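Researcher: Here's the sequence for the chain we discussed earlier.
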Amino acid sequence: MTRLHFASALLPSGWAHDVQVVVTAGAIAAVTPGVAPAAGDERHAIALPGLASLHSHAFQRGMAGLAELRGDSTDTFWTWRETMYRFALAMTPDDVAAVATLLYVEMLEQGFTRVGEFHYLHHDRDGSPYADPAEMAARIAQAAEASGIALTLLPSFYAHGSFGGAAPHAGQRRFICSVDQFAALVAASRRAISALPGANIGIAPHSLRAVTPDELAAIIPLAEDGPVHIHAAEQVKEVEDCLAWSGRRPVQWLLERAPVDRRWCLIHATHMTDEEVTAFAQTGAVAGLCPITEASLGDGTFSAREFVDAGGFFGVGTDSNVLIGAADELRQLEYGQRLKHRQRNVLSGGAGRSTGRSLFDGALTGGARALAQPASGLTPGARADIVTLNAAHPSLAGRHGDSVIDGWIFSAGGAAVDCVWAGGRKVVEGGQHGLRQSARDRFTASMRRLVA
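Model: Thanks. This is the structure I predict for it:
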């Protein structure tokens, strides 16, 4: 049992003072506000629940910064994708483990305590399956276990190169599965995470580009009671190609032809009509927003104000992992809306409300829903995922309540994160994860070989 005492803590009911939190077997057993610290309590100033990065491609952390040289033609998502394919084709299972371990260490240092790993790097470099279908998934699980981050594994089904069952691109050979292969992969992945504390599993049909309607219908039952994630409407070209194939836009097609409900998470959903925004919000599914990656890739700007006003749920993910930061993703989400609407505090939720608090609450709730977590926040029964902020940071000086979150998101960023508990295990102290240096050393060794 661990007893923590916080001068101020954000509970589901709001900010509370002098809060004692008791942690047992990785979960929060009791939360008692308004009590003085007792002997043996570990004392901290400001506590928040950890957030989920609901959408991550761990291997892409290794190529961060490697696609910033413009070629002869207009540089777009589609040209970036070619660089990603080349990088993916070079990685060994050991490389994947090294990259994922550093990534998850960095996520924890920045206030993310759970990751939704949209995992599609399945096979050997020539495209042949490993003897264990979950060889690569097991490396992801190992990285999660070493770092302490909670894992929602989302094996991705990828069968085609474009709409209508087009043949896959040669660069996609490590991703490609038949329905039967994917069923075996999901079963093996379920075994790979079975002993990992706090882990769960869903499925991720990659996109309507990569999955035919019949295949989508065949794989959805493999999720059992887990989440279903899919990329949708990230790029204008994707929308145009989907219209040419089906007469429907991607989100429109999914809402009309797939059983989209609160178990689903539509990643990006950047390009929607007003009607799609409203219909999507009404399903209870989550919009998986990755603001930094969407900016990096030139995707466009999600209709966040309209979606939230319609009652939609959202969470944030780090996607390509070009920059890791819970505060950074939330800040970019709001700043994108400010640029789009030429207004300030667009996602505050109303007059007199804190934008940072609204962003944080939305991401906390949506992230938990998207990753099928029955409880979230600093509440009894929830996994003990706790983040403390350094009250002495200049951007938090003299702040109280929601202004603390505003100072963290819009000024201090990750530099204000002090300690992090993941499943009750203290993994970050003084802003540094215990594995930081060893994870960096392994990552650096892999990168020197891969970049060369």
